[in-house]
Design brief:
The protein has seven helices and 14 strands. The chain is elongated and about 135 Å long. The protein starts with 5 loop residues before the first strand and ends in an 8-residue tail after the last helix.
Length: about 325
């Protein structure tokens, strides 16, 4: 039996019974229900959000791991893209230049995929942006690798048809042992202390170290040249020449034919020089080019990349 409720009336100084109409009782009950429902939803949201079930926790851990794996995959793809870019650069600027073949246009190497959207089904699924982006990068890499593979096939065919040319191109290191000092490009002159164009590379070695012809050639000159000291210039044909400067002794004469790997001079310190070293240049079609790009026959890919990184460091030349 429910208890009756009373309210004190200060005017009559007595307690009066509180009468509640059915409508008032209905709204009071409704407010209780609303409060209970709101509190219940708030409790459920808090519980589900901060206290996931074992299955939900497993799924969250799996999603976190998948995102981490996709992040690692994208990082690895970035490395592959860098290596592929280096290969494309060497392909266009070294290999094809050597065989006098036109480089592959960037529009062909970096062309996209036309026609139907290949990723429509994935894009229709929620939260698949990372998967779509990864698939797009893989497809682009696959196409670039295919184009590069075709290009190397072409280069192999060119090499087979130009074996005589390959013997003459200066493509080995002029010294067997040395310390790499200064590369091709703008360098600080050791005597004048001004920035000047360094048209070759400087390789430090003891005086008397043997210098080798880097390709089959005819000796264009073997004499003392101003600034360069005792110098040998070889004419390899096919628009190539190589120069060996600051020698201590010249072992060939003008007009003499030499083979790749034949000793032509000894390292020295003649001319404008600050120490015993070899200044080595390659001239292609009348233009001096970076000799590092022609150290093809002597170096592995890792060794080539290591010496290339050293060669681009800003430093002081020896001459």
């Amino acid at each position: 039996m429910s208890k009756s409720k009373f309210r004190y009336n200060p005017e009559t100084l007595s307690y009066e019974k509180i009468e509640r109409s059915p409508k008032k009782i209905f709204f009071m009950l409704l407010s209780y229900v609303v409060v209970v429902v709101v509190v219940g939803f708030a409790f459920m949201f808090t519980w589900l959000h901060f206290f996931p079930s074992a299955r939900e926790k497993q799924l969250m851990d799996e999603n976190k791991m998948l995102r981490s794996q996709y992040k690692n995959l994208n990082s690895r793809m970035k490395n592959v893209e860098t290596v592929l870019g280096d290969l494309a650069d060497k392909d266009n600027n070294i290999y094809r230049m050597v065989f006098e073949s036109e480089p592959i246009p960037d529009a062909v190497r970096n062309g996209g995929f036309g026609g139907v959207n290949r990723y429509a089904e994935l894009e229709a699924i929620p939260n698949m942006e990372l998967v779509v982006e990864t698939n797009k990068r893989i497809d682009v890499l696959t196409k670039k690798l295919y184009i590069q593979s075709l290009s190397f096939d072409t280069i192999v065919d060119l090499a087979k048809n130009k074996q005589e040319m390959l013997l003459h191109i200066p493509s080995i290191q002029p010294l067997k042992t040395y310390k790499y000092v200064s590369g091709f490009g703008t360098r600080m002159h050791p005597i004048y202390k001004t920035l000047r164009t360094h048209s070759g590379i400087d390789l430090v070695a003891p005086s008397g170290t043997k210098i080798y012809a880097t390709g089959d050639a005819v000796v264009k000159s073997a004499d003392f040249e101003r600034g360069y000291g005792k110098t040998v210039v070889l004419d390899h044909g096919y628009k190539y020449q190589s120069m060996y400067a600051h020698c201590s002794e010249l072992l060939v004469r003008k007009g003499q034919k030499v083979k790749r790997g034949e000793v032509i001079a000894l390292v020295g310190n003649t001319g404008v020089s600050t120490g015993s070293h070899l200044h080595y240049e390659i001239i292609k079609s009348g233009q001096k080019v970076n000799p590092i790009n022609y150290f093809l026959n002597d170096l592995s890919a890792n060794e080539f990349e290591e010496i290339r990184q050293i060669s681009i460091q800003p430093n002081q030349s020896f001459d």
